[in-house]
Amino acid sequence: MPGPQEIDPARLRESLGSLAGIDQLRRAVGEERAYLVGGAVRDLLLGRTRADLDLAVDGDVGVIARALGEDVTVHERFETATVRVGDLVVDLARSRAESYEQPGALPTVSPAPIAEDLARRDFTINAMAVPLDGKAELIDPHGGLEDLRAGVLRVLHERSFVDDPTRALRAARYAARFDFRLEPGTEKLLRAADLSTVSDERVQAELRRIAAEDDPAGVIALILEWGVMPSLDSGAPERVGALADLASRPPWAGWAERELAVSLAIVRPLPQIRELAAATPERPSEVVRLAEPWDPAQLLVARALGAEWLDRYAEELRHAGLEITGDDLIREGVPEGPAIGRGLEAALSGKLDGELSGWDEELRIALAVARGEIPED
Question: Helices 216-226 and 167-178: crossing angle, nearest 10°?
Answer without folding.
Answer: 130
